[in-house]
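Quick sanity check, Fatty acid desaturase:
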Amino acid sequence: MSGKRLTPEELDRLGAELDALRQRVVDDLGQADRDYLLTVVRTQRALEVAGRGLLFLGFFPPAWLAGVAALSASKILDNMEIGHNVMHGQYDWMRDPALNSRTFEWDTVAPAANWKHSHNYVHHTFTNVLGKDRDIGYGILRIDPEQRWHPYYLGNPVYAFLLMVFFQWGVMLHDLEVERLVSGEKRWAETAGVRRLMWRKGLRQAVKDYVLFPALSGPLFVSTLAGNATANLARNVWAFAIIFCGHFPSGVASFTEEETAGESRGRWYHRQLLGSANITGSALFHVLTGNLSHQIEHHLFPDLPARRYPMIAPQVRDICARYGLPYNTGGLARQLGSVVGKLVRYALPDRWWGGTSGPTRGTVGSGRGPRAA
């Protein structure tokens, strides 16, 4: 699905068109965007209050189930539509200290400061560049054929399941760069600052969810603890599914460091288009994904308010069609199914499924081009 090979001139025109599209959105930002975010924040807070209140009635099973549902939705909104997007700087123009990327902290164990480095900078700068983008496999999975196979990867499906269940902890530990510690590229002492933030945030979250609120419910301690754990699990599974479907389904391309050396603006856009995928769904579905169901638009314009992605998606798709580039999109079941298929396939030695791995590929925009995983 790498599409047509673009000439340097075509890449420059592609970059200019997408820059112009971004500027039109920036020029149009205003009260509607502010009102939208504030409405989502109020909804999230109302759901949290309702959820925690209903858990205090945990002796009545329907109330417990309703409480878990409300708290799960609250955590999903906080993580996806508020936290992720605010920390990308999408709403810094509002000059609201409570919703500024520099000061915002989300309801998850991963410290905002650590996450912003590994995600906003590393992942969004080096998207799908092997050896640079640490989100490829999250340091524990083989999700791309260019990752050299090792017997360790036979456990790929098991590791993926555990990462899904404990996703917030996986995101937190991701910042330790364990694979670099194991290889000797990084020393344990160099992680002191990262570990300090992880310890403080992780302990605070664990106490809040598994000690404080359960204790406030008195004799319903165990019931409330179970409700909080279930809400965290729901948020973890949902976030894992949406993120993996936006980055790793069939047809998403990966790149070598050599291919991206001296990358122009147009070539950077080209890489984002080929290295991301969308998920189709309803308006409510898109809100619950933080509009990361429009992962292509997000990777093109990570600092634009995510509510704008569905609005500009038809224009992005038209640009892709005119330049002969793929626009990878599909339903949740289809995208998730292809991710699961890759996790199982790449768990096995290449010779078992007829794959080959090689250290080099052609230059983006000419030659052989990027390889679709």
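Posting the structure with no commentary besides this: DSSP finds 15 helices and four strands in the chain.
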